[in-house]
C-alpha cells in the first residue's frame, strides 16, 4: 500500500492519470493501509471495530491538519512531513479515507470467506 501510494504521488501525472486519481488515490490507499494495519494487529477484533478505529484515526489525522505551529508547518513543507501529516485540511480526504477503509474491509471479508471455504 505504501509503495503504491508513493508511486501514485510520484509518477501518477507522468503516467497520464487524471488529477482526482493522483490527488485522492493516495488518501484512499492510506485509509486502506490503516485498516489493514489495525486488522493485522488485532485479528480477533471484529472487522467493523477495526474499520471504525481506522476511520477514527483517519479523521483525527485530518483534523490535526487544522493545528498550526511554526515548527509543525515547517515540517509539513518537507516531503516526510507532507506524507506523514499532510499540508492542508480537506473533507474530501476524509471521504477518500472512508472509501479506502471500505474497500479494505470488503477485501478482508472476501478473502477471509474464500480462505474459510477452502478449508471445508
Structural Rg: 16 Å
Query: Mean pLDDT, rounded to whole units?
Result: 88
Q: Report strand %.
A: under 5%
Number of E-state strands: 0
Largest sheet: none
Low-confidence stretches: none
- Helix % is over 70%
Number of helices: 6
Give the CA-CA distance, first to last residue: 31 Å
The total number of structural domains is: 1
What is the general shape?
globular
Order of helices and strands: HHHHHH
Decide which structural class fits the backbone.
mainly alpha
InterPro entries: DUF2809 (IPR021257)
Transmembrane segments: 20-42, 49-68, 88-107
Keywords: Membrane, Transmembrane, Transmembrane helix
Protein name: DUF2809 domain-containing protein
Describe what you observe in this structure.
With 120 residues, the chain is an all-alpha fold. The protein has one domain (24-118). It is 78% helix and 0% strand. The protein contains 6 helices and no strands. The chain has helices at residues 2-11, 19-41, 47-64, 70-76, 79-85, 91-118. α3 runs antiparallel to α6. The two termini are 31 Å apart.
What's a quick, concise take on this entry?
This protein has 120 residues and is an all-alpha fold. It contains six helices and no strands. It comes from Aureimonas endophytica.
Amino acid at each position: 500500500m505504501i509503495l503504491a501510494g508513493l508511486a501514485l504521488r510520484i509518477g501518477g501525472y507522468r503516467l497520464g492519470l487524471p488529477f482526482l486519481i493522483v490527488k485522492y488515490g493516495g488518501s484512499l490507499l492510506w485509509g486502506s493501509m490503516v485498516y489493514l494495519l489495525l486488522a493485522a494487529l488485532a485479528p480477533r477484533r471484529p472487522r467493523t471495530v477495526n474499520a471504525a478505529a481506522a476511520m477514527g484515526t483517519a479523521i483525527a489525522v485530518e483534523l490535526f491538519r487544522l493545528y498550526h505551529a511554526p515548527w509543525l508547518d515547517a515540517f509539513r513543507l518537507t516531503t516526510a512531513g507532507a506524507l506523514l501529516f499532510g499540508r492542508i485540511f480537506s473533507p474530501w480526504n476524509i471521504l477518500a479515507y472512508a472509501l479506502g477503509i471500505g474497500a479494505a474491509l470488503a477485501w478482508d471479508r472476501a478473502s477471509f470467506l474464500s480462505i474459510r471455504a477452502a478449508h471445508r
